Amino acid sequence: MASDYIVVCVMFFIALGFVGVALFVAKLVRPRRPTNVKLTTYECGEKPWGGAWVQYNVRFYLVALAFVVFDVEAAFLFPWAVVFKKLGLFGFIEMAVFIFVILFGLVYVWRKGALKWV
Amino acid sequence: MIAGWINSCYESIRNWWVACGIPLVWLDIIRAILLGIVLAIIVVVAVLILTYVERKVAGHFQSRMGPMRVGWHGLLQPIADAIKLIQKEDIVPEKADYWVFTLAPFVVFVPVMMVLVVIPFGDHLIVQDLNIGILYIFAVSGIGVVAILMGGWASNNKWSLLGAMRSVSQMVSYELPLILSVLGVVILAGTMSMGGIVEAQRKMWFIVYQPLGFIIYLFAATAEVNRVPFDLPEAEQEIVAGYNTEYSGMKFAMFYLAEYANMFIVSMIGATLFLGGWQGPLLPSPVWFLIKTGAMVFILLWFRWTFPRFRVDQLMDFGWKVLLPFAFINLLVTALVVII
Amino acid sequence: MAEDRDRILKTMITEDELSAIEARPELKKDYRTEEFWMNVGPQHPSTHGVLRLVLKMDGEVIVDCVPQIGYLHRGLDKMAELKTYNQYLPYLDRADYVSAMLTEHCYVMAVEKLAGIEVPERAEYIRVIVSELNRIASHLVWLGVLSLDLGAITPFLYCFREREIIMDLFEMLCGQRLTYNYLRFGGVAFDIDEAVNPNAPHKFLGITVNPGGERGVDFTTLAYRFAEVFPDRVDDYEAILTHNEIFLERMAGIGYLPLDVALSYGVTGPNIRGSGFAYDIRKVDKYSIYEKVYNGTGIEPPTGEKGDCWDRYKVRIQEMRDSCKMIKWCLDNIPDGPIRSKVPRVLKVAEGETYMRIEAPRGEFGIYLVSDGTNKPYRLKLRGPSFSNLSVLPYMIRGYKVADLIAIFGSLDVILPDCDR
Fold first, then answer.
1. Of the candidates C217, C174, C220, C170, which has an alpha carbon nearest to the alpha carbon of residue C196?
2. How far, in Å, are A70, B121, C367, C421 from residue C385 at the CA level?
3. Which of C5, C48, C157 should be substituted to probe chain B, the one whose Cβ sees the most B Cβ atoms within 10 Å?
4. Contact partners, residue B296, CB within 8 Å, separation at least 6
5. Count of other CB atoms within 10 angstroms of residue C330
6. Crossing angle for the helix pair B77-87 and A4-29, nearest 10 degrees?
7. C-beta of residue C268 within 8 angstroms of C-beta of residue C301
8. Which of residues 37-56 of C touch B (CB under 8 A)?
9. Who among B63, B229, B238 is closest to C403 (CB)?
10. How far is C226 from chain B (nearest CA, A)?
11. Residues above pLDDT 70, as percent of chain B
């Protein structure tokens, strides 16, 4: 079982190596002539007005919180789906209750207006 | 046939290896390295072909010719582009966070290669048929968004910042319908392994039982690969180039490569889950897989050259108020039908 | 609309929560989100040239906007004082280069009015034909660029395909595709009957001109054929845009421009007609032969109801169809005769002043001309429609998102050389 994941692990390093080699080859070929203007960040041809690292108002904070809840729920659904045929009616009712609770949560969030952008 | 020949070769090497008394793990690692290099080459070639096809298709959609100058009907255009990108100067802005900025191209490319592990390209042509295939795909491919966030934030550029934040909001919108749309397939197949799902479609493709699931998957997958109408993180008319505004040269090429490779990957996953994978009469199995993948890719291209772009809050509405309820309904109905 | 914007303008923190945070200063830093300033333009893909908008942003939402112009200032007003009346005409083509025929039309009418020059009937017809053709070309640029800004690239190329035919027509007529220098005091430079392209294929960019299959095409045939075929092409654009749910979502219900605001800012053209006021200078002033054209074709200026981006879009689409009807009517009814009255080579205009205005594709284009009796204008002032239309932008986009800025700005159809002059 664990040996299955050897290939995943190797693939991870190959991907890193691929990018590394590509960047390295490019480094051998490409010119390097930095100037002050080149090294400024792009702001449509104007001098940047302050940096971009601000406390950004993301505006979908509540949606992101809801997302975490629902995503975990989706992870719970996967094992159920695999053995669903063996579980039969019992499994269906159990999960239907679970999904309806979650769906109720969705409706609640929706009605509360948390899915809206503010 | 070829696959059978490769497998018999592998078997004989394996026997010899065991006879030599070296642990089998090393053989697995060498095999994985070779396969990885082959896959990397396939990714690059596929992306080169895809960029050419996209421009050609776009050209004919728009009553023009597309690339015509470099080679016969512009066939060498992608190679010329690749050479150009290698030669380009790599500019890292002074105010950028150098290490995060440089790391982002690595992070964006890693999931591409890792997802390819579980894709069945043909009969027995699968690198490693993990038993949690689909879950693994979603787990790994989600990392791509992190790379976009890294690149966008590290650039210290307001456009990149907007693009990165849009990318996050987009991920929050499409990820759930994407996962739920696939659950119907898992119920029908009774397994998460990609090979098993293809086997389960021997009688009939799952798109017949899961039309709604397929449509939801299609929309969500389009959003995942940042294609029009969901290309908000890099909407060039609004936020210049989004998260990759500051990227140039090979680092930009990595983002580009990953984006097009992802387009291929979601098409391959869609073909595997809903269109019967590599199965088909007469033609060899990889050819069938390529045809089905090509059809999915064409749909994505068709979207891009037809639709305007969503607004960021409209995408969120669409994901949460249209796709998600439908995905739940699809799941419940599928379960109900299977139980009866 | 207004309530909606207020809702957007409010941040997520309610008054109660705000006071709770105020009570505990140590929380203040964590709850704070910063507003930041951002430059959009002059180097931005969708500011249609070199407009610079300084935006105050709160996340994705625009809090305030200050348009900055002047990157394209050439001093066209001042140039007029140094050139003779004849010499100035080509300069004026650069004022609004997307619809140069109309700016020329305004200028020659102003000079003619002051100098008391009669214009032959046939020349007036030709002027209206080229004006309306140029109006279609200008609206095509607007439609193509608007759809491009919203992310639909294909309609852009379709629009430019049709615009190409108009450019070719003008090339046949006066040899120029963008800056025409075609109108003259007391008439036009060349007759449309002389405008022939002997090498043109019988199929002209998808329009079959000579069914017999012989090559070569003359202006009248192609223009008439274009006016016949073009409404079908507009149907095509509508099929890909008007009937597209995403496009509707992006355009409808944003960028409201109430009529009183529009009036106070001096907004003209399709923008004010989109707000529900049927103010069309062609109809109001009845200059040139427009009275006959309107009576002959029975066209009424299209108006919108709510004044959102969608209404402005619909108005312009309808105007393109109307212009086709006008071109067809003019080509049907054009009289024979001279195309230019006798005007001295060195034109000396009598002392006096006048204001002449026309309906340019973007609104009221006016010229205020003061003459001191010499062969050069004493003072010439251009009134470009884009300047007024642009100045209303900050009012319209407060509280909307960056993506809406692009849609609203695109729907206003501002062109920068016309702003800066």
1. C217
2. 52, 60, 11, 11
3. C157
4. B266, B267, B268, B270, B271, B275
5. 25
6. 70
7. no
8. 38, 44-46
9. B238
10. 18
11. 99
| pLDDT range class, residue C12, cuts 50, 70, 90 | very low
**In C, which residues are within 8 Å of B162 by CB distance?**
60, 402
Spell out the residues 6+ positions from residue B335 whose beta carbon is closer than 8 angstroms to its own.
A84, A92, A95, A96, B187
Residue-by-residue DSSP string for B255-291: HHHHHHHHHHHHHHHHHHHHS-TT--SSS-HHHHHHH
What contacts C147, CB < 8 A, 6 or more positions away? B308, C153, C155, C156, C159, C241, C247
Q: Coil, strand, or helix at residue B201?
A: coil
Chain B closest-CA separation from residue A13 CA (Å): 8
- For residue C43, the one-letter residue type is Q
HSE-CB at C146 with a 13 A cutoff on CA atoms is 30
**What does the pLDDT read at residue C2?**
45
Measured between CB atoms, which of B95, B172, B249 is closest to A41? B95
Residue C18: Cβ within 10 Å count: 12
Which residues of A are less than 8 Å from C42 in CB distance?
A: 44-46
Strand partners, C370: C353, C379
Per-residue pLDDT of C18-32, as tens digits, reads 566 566 666 555 566
pLDDT at C51 > cutoff 80: yes
Q: Is the pLDDT of residue C9 over 50?
A: no
Residue C383: CB atoms within 10 A of its CB come to 18
How far apart are the CA of C213 and the nearest CA of chain B, in angstroms?
22
Copy the structure tokens of residue A18. 């691929």
Q: Which of C43, C62, C150 to mutate to test the interface with B (most CBs of B within 10 A)?
A: C150
At the topology level of CATH, where does A2-112 sit?
Answer: Methane Monooxygenase Hydroxylase; Chain G, domain 1 (1.20.58)
CB A27 within 8 A of CB B88: no
**In which residue are the tokens 């106070």 written?**
C264
Dihedrals phi, psi of C180, to nearest 5 degrees: -85, -40
Tens digits of residue pLDDT in C63-107: 888 888 888 888 888 888 888 888 888 888 888 888 888 888 999
**Quick one: tokens of A96?**
């239907």
Q: Rounded to an integer, what is the distance from CA C132 to the centroid of its chain? A: 12
Using only C-alpha atoms, chain C has a radius of gyration, in whole angstroms, of: 24
**Full DSSP string of A92-103:** HHHHHHHHHHHH
Torsion of CA C382, C386, C389, C390, to 10 degrees: -110
* Residue whose C-alpha is closest to residue B25's, from B33, B125, A14: B33
Give helix B143-154 / helix B249-274 axis angle, nearest 10°.
Answer: 160
The strand pair at C203-204 and C217-218 is best described as unpaired
Collapsed DSSP state (helix, strand, coil) of residue C205: coil
Distance CA B235, CA C351 (A): 55
d(CA B126, CA C68): 58
Q: How far is CA C163 from CA A114, B326, C136, C206, in A?
A: 46, 43, 8, 13
Return the residue matching tokens 């299955």. Answer: A4
Q: Show me where the domains of chain A are located.
A: 2-112
Residue A81 CA to residue A73 CA, distance in Å, equals 12
ipTM at complex level: 0.85
Question: Which of B56, B93, B308, B259 minimizes the C-alpha distance to C46?
Answer: B308
Residue-wise pLDDT tens digits, B23-58: 777 777 887 788 888 888 888 888 999 899 988 988
pLDDT value, residue C140: 92
Which chain C residue has its CA at the smallest distance from B241's CA?
A: C45
Closest by CA to B34, choosing from B5, B6, B62, B76, is B6
Residue A80 is encoded by which pair of tokens? 């159920």
